[in-house]
Design goal:
Blueprint lengths: L8 E9 L4 H13 L6 E4 L13 H12 L3 E4 L14 H9 L12 H18 L5 E2 L8 H9 L6 E4 L2 E4 L4 E4 L1 E3 L6 H17 L6 E5 L7 H17 L1 E3 L1 H7 L4 H7 L23
């Protein structure tokens, strides 16, 4: 067994990091500091809902670079975080794209061309800013077949991609199941269900399974949710080694040949370096 799988690791991931959500993110960071968490994976949206381009906010850039200096990882989290594809045509797709997320599953139904364009633009932004890049997380953890093709084309730029139930080791597409705790805090009923789901997930998570603690900016709007997260995180920090997704995946490298033979829908890897950009804001045309 890989040492990374046997050491009881936990990752705190802060989703939807953007100038538009920075006030709530700062509240989450304060809670994490109080719990003794000094490294986390921060999922950055390059241009949240077409209204918050990251490269234009100098204070935001300085804040993220300061957090990288203390151990945080920055992760590419879609590009616009907005599902603008054609409406869902099946009940399953409707549930995934309209009920489990409110039209924010940006990569849920994208074709390969559109997905590649957005991923390349995100890579270009990280390159322009000089930020290390290891991971890609599609908004709402929804990833179309076209998105997988786009990631395959850029496989040398990512070491992993996250979905709800686990992580894919790239470019082999080796799936590693993880535990994943998250909240839906927008109503009393959803909060009650989230507390139950978190308790059940913790019971299922054995010591050898990576524990992912997924925070969203809206969690900071509910004091009871923050208090519950503080208890959950403090308990995890007392029994598990805190790390980032990048560092955990770097330590876990299963046999490539076996992984490749089991991975569905693989495509030959081809180069996908970010195209040179003439400005600090990568363009999507």
């Amino acid at each position: 067994m890989s040492p990374a799988l046997g050491d009881g690791a936990a990752v705190v991931a802060v989703h939807d990091v953007s100038p538009a959500t920075w006030r709530e993110c700062r509240e989450l960071f304060a809670m994490l500091e109080h719990c003794g968490v000094h490294c986390a994976s921060l999922l950055v949206i390059p241009d949240y809902h077409h209204r918050a381009p990251v490269p234009r906010d100098v204070q935001f850039l300085r804040a993220l670079e300061a957090r990288m200096g203390t151990g945080d990882e920055l992760v590419l989290h879609g590009f616009f975080h907005l599902d603008e594809s054609a409406p869902p045509r099946s009940v399953r797709a409707f549930v995934a794209r309209r009920l489990l997320t409110r039209r924010e599953g940006e990569f849920a139904a994208l074709g390969a061309e559109d997905a590649t364009r957005r991923i390349r633009a995100g890579i270009a932004m990280f390159d322009i800013l000089g930020w290390p890049l290891a991971g890609f997380v599609p908004p709402a953890w929804l990833m179309s077949a076209g998105t997988r093709d786009a990631i395959d084309a850029c496989g040398h730029r990512f070491s992993y991609a996250s979905v709800r139930k686990g992580l894919y080791l790239l470019p082999e597409w080796r799936f590693v199941r993880t535990a994943n705790l998250c909240y839906s805090p927008t109503s009393a009923m959803r909060r009650a269900y989230s507390r139950l789901a978190i308790a059940m997930e913790l019971r299922r998570a054995d010591a050898d399974m990576l524990l992912r603690i997924t925070l969203h900016p809206q969690d900071a709007r509910e004091p009871a949710v923050l208090r519950h997260w503080a208890r959950v995180i403090a308990a995890a920090a007392a029994t598990r080694r805190l790390t980032t997704k990048r560092d955990w995946m770097a330590a876990f490298r299963p046999p490539v040949a076996r992984a490749a033979s089991n991975a569905p829908g693989l495509r030959p890897e081809s180069g996908c370096a970010a195209s040179p950009a003439s400005s600090a804001r990568p363009a999507i045309s």
